Amino acid sequence: MEMKINSKLIVKLRKEKGWSQQHLSLVSGVSLRTIQRVENEGNTSIETLKSLASAFETDFNSLIFRSPQPNKVLKKTITSFALLFSLATCVFLTSTTTASPGIEVQAEKMIVSQDKRDTTFLGDVIMVIPSTVPFEISTIENHSSKGYQLKITTDGSSFLISDARITRVETGLEVRAAEVQASNATE
């Protein structure tokens, strides 16, 4: 039965003792060719392993190559995946943008247009407009094709909002909606 052993450790132990491969062969009773194969390939039989361990006056288990245990690798992989998934979830659950200085928008999902002028926020959108930011609110009477009913305009941005619930909060105005489309340029 072939076993995988730590060939680097064999070479290290041999050199620490100042032995050549030939001398190790004589001390251990293992052929020179086998010593060379062990040091180059790291494969050996249990008998050769026991002979080498005896020559180095060490436990043969210390010479066996130990690959990372599958459970530890699996645990690290799962932990890394869970951490990455948690981070990605946090980003999506609290996707935040400041379309206009001071205005913060949070949503479950955020879609940015290809030209990067429009951002659509979907799912439990919360938009906070600080009391220090001037804005104008108007209704959209014709209901655009996407179902927006409200438009909020600031100096540099406009927000089209569907299913809005507006509440005055301590810091300003809070708008909760199903969907908000933010545009960098006012329309």
UniProtKB/TrEMBL annotation:
The keyword Ligase does not apply. Keywords: Membrane, Transmembrane, Transmembrane helix. Signal peptide: none annotated. Coiled coil: none annotated. CDD domains: HTH_XRE (cd00093). SUPFAM superfamilies: lambda repressor-like DNA-binding domains (SSF47413). This is Helix-turn-helix transcriptional regulator. The chain crosses the membrane at residues 73-94. Residues 10-63 form the HTH cro/C1-type domain. GO terms for molecular function: DNA binding. InterPro entries: Cro/C1-type_HTH, Lambda_DNA-bd_dom_sf.
